[in-house]
Amino acid sequence: MRRSKIVLIGCGAVGSTFAYTVMLKELAHELVLIDHNKDKAEGDALDLNHGLMLAGPMLIRAGDYSDCAGADIIVIAAGAAQRPGETRIDLMHRNVAIFDAIIKQVTEHNNDGILLIASNPVDILTQVALKLSGWPGHRVIGSGTLLDSSRFRYLIGQRLRVDPRSIHGMIIGEHGDSEVPVWSSMNVAGVVPEACGPEGGRWCLDDLDKQTIFDETRNAAYQIISKKGATSYAIALALARICEAILRDQHSILPVSTYLDDYHGVSGLYMGVPSVLGRHGVEEVVRLPLTTREAELFKQSAEKLQLFLTTIGF
Ligand code: NAD
Fold first, then answer.
1. Residue of 52, 94, 148, 262 with fewest CB within 10 Å of its CB?
2. For position 156, what pLDDT does the model report?
3. Has residue 160 been placed in a domain?
4. Are 106 and 198 contacting, i.e. CB atoms less than 8 angstroms apart?
């Protein structure tokens, strides 16, 4: 088997949980950890190495940007936290400056890997990474709405009492408040839930159920952050799933943030849509049929992202 290498930049709550997930899933031969807090990267590497006897053989170490050479995937989970009183736009400017420094150093050592962005706002920062790297769009990917879709399917699964893996359904658009649930193609093993009649029904979902499920999906991050300060496990699994699809050339269809070219009328923007992922990154974007209302909401989500990009001068 071909040797595989992942470089992780940013070993905070998201990054270090991702590193642990990569180790448990034995996703790559080599994992290099980079953080501007060197002690954190070194501490994580030591801690993970001490579990290798109980997991499986892998080379895990702290490193620097020269280690990006030969990396198949460079995952970026670095980011500045919002300061008290700081606006989202000011935070955005700081994150763009961080990305500017990071991407310059990555591309000094690697020009044929895949950039996978987790840092928020993920659709915007993936677009920033595209511009700064000069890499082709299929090799610059954001985690997009994969996490949101996983939350969505979990909540539908809870309501219908089935395994979320048996549910097909996606959230598309911005990873954020303007995201769009695609109820029109949601199904359970091919069964499209209908509105509940007076008798109810095994597979029914009424409008209130749908609204509750979507509200809980959209507000999940706020809820978790208010309780534990950060989200980490599910996003780490989402990032690991994307890496798995790429490194194992699985051609899996996942809703990642992808550069759009006339997707329901949206072009030149990164948004979460179902995409075929394989060894070369995004191989194809899947055109999901949308109702007029869903297409309208998707367009509004795009307009919001475009406004944000214009405000920060991109
Ligand atoms: P965190 O504050 O715990 O970690 C951020 C890490 O980045 C820190 O270890 C910090 O030292 C490091 N860092 C900062 N600037 C750096 C630089 N210039 N170079 C290298 N490292 C640098 O934050 P977190 O909770 O791990 O979240 C990380 C990012 O992921 C945030 O932007 C967060 O909003 C985002 N996030 C995205 C999703 C998603 O679905 N895409 C989900 C959760 C979190």
1. 262
2. 98
3. no
4. no
In this predicted model, what pLDDT tens digit does every residue of 21-59 receive, in sequence order? 999 999 999 999 999 999 999 999 999 999 999 999 999
Residue 24 within any structural domain of the chain: yes
* Positions in the chain short of pLDDT 50: none
79 to each of 93, 158, 232, how far by Cα in Å? 11, 33, 14
Closest C-alpha residue for ligand 1 atom 31: 119
- Is 239 inside any structural domain? no
CATH code for the domain in which residue 127 is found: 3.40.50.720
State the closest ligand 1 atom to the C-alpha of 15, by its place in the atom list counted from 1: 26
**Rounded to whole angstroms, how far apart are CA atoms 147 and 256?**
9
Q: Angle at Cα 147 formed by Cα 299 and Cα 144, nearest 5°?
A: 40
- Rounded Cα distance between 33 and 58, Å, is 13
- 9: Cβ below 6 Å to ligand 1? yes
10 CB near ligand 1 (under 6 Å): yes
Q: Whose CA is nearest to atom 1 of ligand 1?
A: 12
- In the chain, the number of structural domains is 1
In a domain, 236, yes or no: no
Which residues fall within 8 angstroms of residue 170, CB to CB, at 6 or more apart? 145, 149, 152, 181, 182, 185, 186, 255, 274, 288
Residue nearest (by alpha carbon) to ligand 1 atom 28:
77
Distance CA 55, CA 12 (A): 22
